Amino acid sequence: MVLYCPLYDVIVVGAGHAGCEAALAAARMGCRVLLTAIDLDKVAAMPCSPSIGGMAKGQLVKELDALGGEMAKITDRTAIQYRKLNTKKGPAVHSSRTQNDKMRYHMAMKAVIEAEPNIDLKQTMVESLAVEGDRIAGVEDHTGFGYRATTVVLATGTFLSGLVHIGNKSVQAGRAGEFAAYGLAEHLRQIGFGLGRMKTGTPPRLRKSSIDFSKFSAQETDENPTPFSFFTEHICLPQIPSYIGYTNRRAHAIVRDNLQRSALYGGIIKGISARYCPSFEDKIVKFPDKDRHQVILEPEGIDTEEIYASGLGNSLPLEVQIELVRSVEGLEAAEIMRPAYAIEYDYVNPIQLKPSLEAKKIKGLFLAGQINGTSGYEEAAAQGLWAGINAACQVQKRPPFVLDRSQAYMGVMIDDLVTRGTREPYRMFTSRAEYRLMLREDNADLRLMEIGHALDLIDRDTVRDLRARKMQIDQEIQRIKHTFIKPDKAVNAYLLSRGTQPLGDGTRLDQLLKRVELDYQTVEALAPSPDNIRPGVAKQVEIEIKYEGYIQKQLREIERFKNLERIKIPEDFDFFSVHGLSNELKEKLSAVRATSLGQATRIDGITPAAISVLMVALKAQAKRKMVNECDGTI
User: Which of 64, 367, 492, 629 is 20 to 30 A from 165, alpha carbon to alpha carbon?
Assistant: First the structure.
């Protein structure tokens, strides 16, 4: 392979959500970046749902933003509906979600990419990698042209051996109407990567003017929507409702009568589907007792007639899809503009990656997004940022960037992937995060902006403001804890007006604030601060005081977690030499190559007894090393 052109610091293959974040992160850290896409008209495309965020996904986007990523900013520039989910529950599971104008999202992100002076954006299809020894050297495209690089990030989405299915018709495509990357998939197999096969899908798009929306319930945007990005000052676009309806027994009968004509149940699809995002065929087969399933009609943009029919994803023939759609009340005359389809694609089991997302077998090669077996724009973007930062760190000879499970949802996701691997499309859930009370949307900036600043992704003025807010939060908490409230007539009248018991004796203000019925308004009413307390500061103060007991408990759990994380496992540690471990566990430990004893505890099948044996072996090795070093000195 001949490599032409100047040497790039980082080449990013694929310009979806992972690729864009990887390229921007590396470029903003000072690296010269080449970003390649099969089609430049699909940069940061939203091929499935026209939405960003949701349960746990919103937390990922907030963390991206706090570290200097771009997704939240573009989301705010293109959002046409905002909703805060789980507001009736505690703040640990509050999650933001938007509907977005798909075309505007693509154009806004592409404009940011093109304006970045350190990024060269080119349309080409990468067919193979250039590897010299155990290190990446560049890539070669479908024309035989080679590009040299110090590091490479693969962010190929669903394009590796992509196969689109509609009924019994299958077409090689990375997405409907787009080329698939078969050459690169075969090349990865040839150089030793273990690949698996996954399946996802998308519902039909309907013509807006053919829908009777009076048969659906409108789902409006939040009354006072909060921007996604910490940097957004106001929301630009008009807000548009979604509409909720339901399928019926007739729709279910149509699917049952045509199951064998579906690619999924007709035996054509071999890839593994996501359990938590079933196709409509799956819903009918797996939930036969349900009389109806929800359908959400989501606008794909302000200037388009296309409506995303969430809940009706399937792989049925088009004539059956038409019958199915028109069986739903309100869709009797609906016109399908784009049919639903299923897509199969190859992925690399992420157990083959280090916590930095660097491939274990090839230095300088990083993988991000759906190539690692994940689903969702948000999961992809978070991995892209992670991989792009680490590619830049390697170029600049900085230590790898790795967040642990107690620091961020990102840390949970990456640890899950590289420690356990995945056999089905991985999706982020709040339940995956043990320390979710500490990893809230509202404090992502407090947790991560300092780290983003250290990586040169967050500017000095932003961090200066962050530190001032942290100081004000701490000072206000201390003031409230040292403020004593006496049970006078005015105080008790206020408490009764808030639906809570009056005081019989005096109490500290923080104890009052812990009551379920009260919030920071109580502080403003009974003992206001002499300083101007910003809404964001007030919210943090209220959460820290109300959940103080739970937070302290979780901090103790985190300290125990970190004690195990501090016990490092050397890269060259020989697990097969450890007596007392079964061969099966030795093989698992050798395959994952955990970097710490803490990570080893999370490998599937590793028992507490095995961890004890491993700890003894690590201590023994450390002792032998110390003795050898002393002998060498003597």
Answer: 367
Residue ranges of the chain whose pLDDT lies below 50:
634
Q: For residue 448, what are the contacts with CB-CB under 8 A and spacing of at least 6?
A: 63, 66, 67, 403, 407, 408
Residue 634: the pLDDT is 44
Which letter, b or e, does each residue of 279-306 get, where b requires 16 or more Cβ atoms within 10 Å of its Cβ?
bbbbbbbeeeeeeebebbbbbbbeebbb
Report which residue type is found at 265: Y
567-633 CATH choice from 2.60.40.10, 3.40.50.1000, 3.40.50.40, 1.10.150.570:
1.10.150.570
DSSP 571-588: TT--GGG-TT--HHHHHH
d(CA 81, CA 416): 32
Which CATH number is associated with domain 205-343? 2.40.30.260
What stretches of 54-185 adopt beta strand conformation (E)? 79-85, 95-100, 119-123, 126-132, 135-141, 146-154, 163-166, 169-172
Q: How far is the C-alpha of 55 from the C-alpha of 542, rounded, in Å? A: 23
What is the DSSP pairing of strand 33-37 with strand 4-13?
Answer: parallel
Q: Is the Cβ–Cβ distance between 20 and 153 less than 8 Å? A: no
Please tell me the distance from the alpha carbon of residue 34 to that of residue 11, in angstroms, as a whole number.
5
- CA-wise closest residue to 295 among 218, 243, 339, 222: 243
Fold entry, domain 462-557: Arc Repressor Mutant, subunit A (1.10.10)
Pick the CATH number of 4-198+345-454 from 1.10.260.40, 3.40.50.2000, 3.40.630.30, 3.50.50.60: 3.50.50.60
Between CA 269 and CA 266 the distance in angstroms is 8
Q: Which residues, at least 6 apart from 424, have a Cβ–Cβ distance to it below 8 Å?
A: 198, 272, 273, 274, 275, 373
